[in-house]
Design a protein that fits this description.
heterotrimer, A alpha/beta (394), B alpha/beta (498), C mainly beta (105), A: 394 residues, alpha/beta, FAD/NAD(P)-binding domain, D-Amino Acid Oxidase, Chain A, domain 2, 2 domains, eight-stranded mixed β-sheet, 9 helices, 27% helix, elongated, C: 105 residues, mainly beta, five-stranded mixed β-sheet, 1 helix, 7% helix, globular, binds flavin-adenine dinucleotide, binds FE2/S2 (inorganic) cluster
Chain lengths: 394, 498, 105
């Protein structure tokens, strides 16, 4: 048996890293285990958008705004480490009908306190000079920002270890230690680890891990492709996406969808993201996904036609059927906690998730009510039908 | 369907990628066995790296001076041209495969022009078969074939050296390619350094073309060959070649310094000289042996070759580490990979030189055309060449201590300008112990070349001092889902199955 | 064979024809069959690209289309590999690295 700790975090993606970091800030002793290296799962195969603009009203928007406050508050001193940029997002409408729905969304969002500003034809062109002549107008969200997600995860792990957290790479969790119903630790090839609280931060693997504990947490993969262009001088100044994006995000349609999100990175490359399709853990390259991304992107920014893509990648968003993450204590297996299923928003939500969970584990009442995210919403008795995994990492 | 039009789909029995020694041989063997063959090559005319020659539009009858094995080329080329005239080879030069796919029909190759085409050329007509030019204007296009032979060759392997990013520093093979392609030299005064017998033809070529070779610096020592003399004797033509180079070196008084390296390239905005030193068997600098060459315009480096593995890796072919530390494809005696119908020949099965590439190409082409099992005589020649190659790899290793030559601010990734200290820091503080996480954390390997140049060195640095990159790390580094840059406009007009 | 083709480059074994390119706005002689990189090097020009971070000079490195260090704008098409593109009469070549006076002939 290895030394026991207050908290044992499984998974060193962005969610596990943030959880460990904030748990250590709470003065708890923490151990983090990952089956690979830090940030080797979905957190290294995504984009780094922290978006307010695309969130469903309700608990998700609340969590997003709480997270934003943590990014700008607790984590602000580390901004440079992960290339934090408050660059703002712009939603563009190219059809009269989508412009009308955009205006409706804006009105509602304003009511909820989201900082959104209408851009008419000219204002849109002033903000994004290379936007398509077809674009009719847009909405500007100055709270939207961006980070480099791999650096977030890696530096949070590093900062946590500097604060005394023990991190072990290449240590897969293969089972749980139990005492009656209670989860009291984990099994690994490097021996057993006991802990007061075991936190499942394994992203798309979370269903598999939960099943090992006999509980149902239905996290499924939703594949996304992202295309990267050659480095260019600044041509795109905000995160720019099409009005249809908002509809796609909350959809459960299995077919291939994609609304363009076009943004530049500090390296000069433009990222064109991202498709959404439910094809399990299929890693084969999809020419239809590439074509869709290319068509959507050139429709927004015609100059991209002659720009070269130099690579593309894909990842698997961990999502739950109700499109809400699972955050909190699992009453079905006392001692087990989950923080997973953040779908296409896990980077942005990591800061808030980690802080709230650490508060709850530390016995405080969290700044934000976590009950909408409660694991037990997936019912008991346990019906473990875990997501199927063919391959290890992204 | 007219061949070669933008967006067109070309169907063949066998597709061959590459028109170097391996690709030419594979195409010829498959065509002569009765298959309809499509040959896609990034080059503008046949030859690949080894048989690169001046544009045939300017020099229609190359005499092969400065080339070895030119007779073999002339023979293969005549058979290649004859098969084109018979309509059995469709030749598609100037196209790079950016993505191969395996599907029910066999294989699909998506291609893109290697160089942007001038507007005036868009209206060009088909050239007659037998000229160096291909079948029609090459827009992007798709090739579909039941079987695929990949012969994409390789490129000079590089190790970072302080100052190697200065203009005037080139790959040793790059100097030779410049000479073979342009008929001129990229400078006047040269230093050639690294390891391996390939440094000899580079230096000899420079001298024969009128350049001055101040020195050839070889990190290994001739004694390193001693345990491998039997393998060397199995390929007598190599000894002959060696004797020829020795004569050229003597004639031009080229100093050949063994157990010697370049420790730094001097110069402000371009290379102007080099610092050198003697090293021990591990490659550690021996104090007090430092020297300087001033007034150098071109420094050529080569540390063996890196096989171009993205296409085999993209198709999921099984790979292994070869004796030289390179990632190569695993093949059976018919050159078939672990993917049925996918054959590999040339450098991608192990760096072994042009003669071996030709033998492998012939075997692969014939097998892909389903003609016959490997020819017995070819098989035993191939075995002798492979033994020689293995001996060569053992005699000319990448020096174990090379990481000690770096200063903290030595550029490792040339594209993204990532330094050695940024890499070791990401390794030591962020846990970047493989090339994949190194790329995520430092951008090393994320630039234009997608880690082709720095991939080997970065993989070794991530693994730690005196450790070479693992097969997994090199295979991650060779995952380049786009085998070549391709315009978003082309992607938007992709033909897809759905 | 000459070490460095100057101006109207010799074309060994071929006809002696002369092409004119424009490099960063000034005329430059070249020979048919040369690569853009070959033609520039023949005039002693070894760097034409400026790196994004350090604004450092770059020119030919691998010589065979692998490293992308030699990128140059050819007739308005950005980011072409100078080692692969063959010269044509009247070709406009633009680099991103400012040429020093000493490089001009
Ligand atoms: C294409 C794409 C674009 C995206 N864009 C954005 C965006 O712009 N903004 C945003 O906020 N989000 C985005 N996302 C979503 C975001 O990437 C995810 O929500 C987030 O990365 C999930 O983080 P995680 O830590 O939960 O999972 P992961 O990063 O997958 O981490 C899980 C970790 O658990 C480890 N693990 C698994 N099983 C075990 C085991 N048995 N034992 C030990 N360790 C184990 C894994 O090795 C892994 O490191 C995108 C996703 C995709 C696919
Ligand atoms: C620059 C250079 C110079 C060399 N000079 C010598 C020498 O003087 N003496 C010596 O013994 N050995 C030399 N070698 C090694 C020699 O090239 C090899 O041993 C031999 O050429 C291998 O033959 P091959 O057919 O495998 O590959 P290559 O000759 O390299 O041919 C591969 C062909 O495939 C094409 N290709 C690659 N990828 C793609 C793609 N994605 N799409 C389309 N086409 C593609 C390439 O453009 C090339 O034309 C040199 C190597 C290099 C890189
Ligand atoms: S010199 Fe490397 S791509 Fe041109």
């Amino acid at each position: 048996m290895n030394a026991s700790s207050d908290v044992l975090v499984i998974g060193a993606g962005v969610i596990g890293a943030a959880t460990a970091y904030f748990a250590a800030q709470q003065g708890l002793t923490v151990t983090v285990l990952d089956k690979g290296l830090p940030a080797s799962g979905t957190s290294s195969a995504c984009e780094g958008n922290i978006l307010v603009s695309d969130k469903e009203l309700g608990p998700e928007l609340e969590l997003t705004r709480y997270s934003l406050a943590v990014w700008h508050g607790d984590l602000s001193e580390h901004k440079k480490l992960w290339e934090f940029e408050s660059k703002g997002g712009i939603i563009v409408a190219s059809r009269e009908s989508s412009l009308a729905s955009l205006h409706r969304v804006m009105t509602v969002q304003t009511g909820y306190g989201v900082a959104v500003e209408e851009l008419d034809r000219d204002a849109l062109r002033e903000a994004e000079p290379h936007i398509s002549p077809e674009a009719l107008g847009g909405a500007s969200y100055r709270e939207d920002c961006q980070v480099q997600p791999m650096l977030v995860a890696a530096h949070l792990v590093r900062l946590a270890t500097e604060a005394g957290v023990r991190f072990l790479a290449e240590t897969p969790v293969t089972g749980f230690l139990r005492s009656g119903d209670r989860v009291t630790g984990v099994r690994t090839p490097r021996g057993d680890f006991a802990a007061g609280a075991v936190v499942n931060c394994t992203g798309t693997w979370a269903g598999e891990l939960a099943a090992l504990a006999g509980v149902n947490v239905p996290v499924l993969p939703r594949r996304g492709f992202v295309m990267v262009t050659e480095p260019l001088p600044p041509m795109v100044h905000h995160k720019v996406y099409a009005a249809e994006y908002i509809d796609n995000v909350g959809s459960s349609d299995a077919g291939l969808q994609g609304s363009p999100v076009v943004e530049s990175t500090p390296g000069g490359n433009i990222l064109i993201g991202s498709t959404r399709e439910r094809v399990g853990f299929d890693r084969s390259v999809s020419t239809s996904a590439l074509r869709l991304l290319a068509r959507n992107a050139t429709a927004l920014f015609p100059f991209l036609e002659d720009v070269k893509a130099i690579r593309h990648y894909h990842g698997f968003r961990p999502y739950c059927p109700d499109h809400l993450p699972v955050i909190g204590h699992d009453d079905r297996a006392p001692g087990l906690w989950h923080a997973a299923g953040h779908e296409g928003a896990g980077i942005g939500l990591s800061a808030g998730t980690g802080k709230l969970l650490a508060q709850a584990i530390g016995g405080q009442s969290p700044d934000l009510d976590l009950s909408p995210f409660a694991p037990a919403r997936f019912g008991s008795p346990a019906d473990p039908t875990p997501a199927h995994h063919e391959e290890a990492t992204a | 369907m007219s061949p070669g039009k933008v967006g067109s789909i070309m169907k063949a029995d066998v597709a061959v990628v590459g028109a170097g020694p391996a690709g030419l041989a594979a195409a010829v063997a498959a065509a002569e066995a009765g298959a309809l063959v499509a040959v896609v090559d990034a080059g503008a005319q046949p030859g690949g790296q080894f048989w690169r020659h001046r544009p045939e539009t300017v020099v229609p009858e190359p005499d092969g001076s400065g080339h070895h094995g030119w007779r073999s080329y002339v023979d293969l080329r005549a058979r290649f041209d004859a098969a084109r005239r018979r309509g059995q080879i469709i030749y598609l030069p100037g196209l790079q495969v950016w993505m191969p796919e395996k599907n029910d029909a066999g294989f699909t190759l998506h291609t893109t022009p290697a160089v942007a085409r001038a507007r005036s050329e868009d209206a060009a007509t088909n050239d007659p078969a037998g000229s160096g030019a291909g079948n029609g204007p090459a827009g992007s296009g798709t090739v579909v074939a039941r079987r695929l032979v990949l012969c994409p060759g390789g490129y000079d392997r590089q190790l970072p050296v302080p100052g190697w990013e200065l203009p005037g520093v080139m790959a040793a093979g790059g100097i030779q390619a410049f000479l073979k392609g342009n008929g001129t030299l990229p400078g006047r005064r040269f230093v050639v350094a690294g390891t391996g017998p390939f440094l000899l033809p580079v230096a000899a070529g420079i001298a024969e073309a009128g350049g001055q070779v101040l020195a050839v610096l070889e990190s290994s020592s001739p004694a390193a060959w001693l345990p491998h003399l039997r393998a060397a004797a199995g390929v007598p033509e190599k000894a002959l070649e060696g004797a020829e180079y020795a004569a050229v070196f003597a004639r031009h008084r080229i100093p050949y310094r063994t157990r010697s390296i370049v420790t730094e390239i001097l110069g402000q905005d371009r290379a102007s000289g080099v610092r050198t030193a003697k090293v021990d068997a591990d490659g550690r600098v021996r104090p007090g042996t430092e020297g300087v060459y001033d007034d150098v315009d071109v420094v050529g480096f080569g540390w063996g070759f890196t096989p171009q593995m993205e296409l085999p890796v993209a198709l999921g072919a099984d790979t292994r580490l070869d004796a030289d530390g390179s990632l190569v494809g695993i093949v059976d005696e018919r050159q078939e990979s672990s993917i049925p119908g996918l054959f590999l020949a040339g450098e991608v099965t192990g760096v072994g030189g042009a003669s071996l590439a030709v033998i492998e190409g012939l075997t692969a082409g014939a097998a892909a055309a389903r003609e016959r099992a490997a020819d017995k005589a070819d098989a035993s020649r191939a075995t002798r060449h492979r033994r020689f190659a293995e001996a060569m790899h053992h005699a000319h290793p990448v020096p174990a201590a090379w990481q000690e030559w770096l200063t903290p601010d030595t550029t490792v990734c040339r594209c993204e300008e990532v330094t050695a200290s940024q890499i070791t820091e990401a390794r030591d503080t962020l846990g970047a112990r493989d090339s994949r996480s190194l790329k995520s954390f430092t951008r090393a390997g994320m630039g234009w070349c997608q880690g082709r140049v720095c991939g080997f060195a970065a993989g070794c640095l991530a693994a730690g001092q005196r450790v070479s990159a693992s097969a997994q790390s090199l295979s991650d580094a060779a995952k380049r889902p786009l085998g070549a840059p391709v315009s978003i406009g082309e992607l938007a007009s992709l033909e897809t199955d759905s | 064979m000459s070490t460095q083709a100057q101006g109207a480059a010799e074309t060994p074994g071929g006809p002696t024809v002369e092409l004119t390119l424009r490099f960063d706005g000034r005329p430059l002689k070249a020979a048919p069959g040369q690569s853009v990189g070959g033609a520039l090097a023949a005039h002693g020009i070894t760097a034409w690209r400026s790196t994004r971070k350090g604004a450092r000079p770059r020119g030919l490195f691998c010589g065979i289309g692998v490293c992308f260090d030699c990128l140059v704008t050819v007739d308005g098409a950005a980011n072409q590999r100078a080692c692969l593109v063959e010269v044509r009469d009247g070709m406009q070549i633009d680099g991103s690295y400012p040429q020093a006076e000493g490089d001009r002939q």
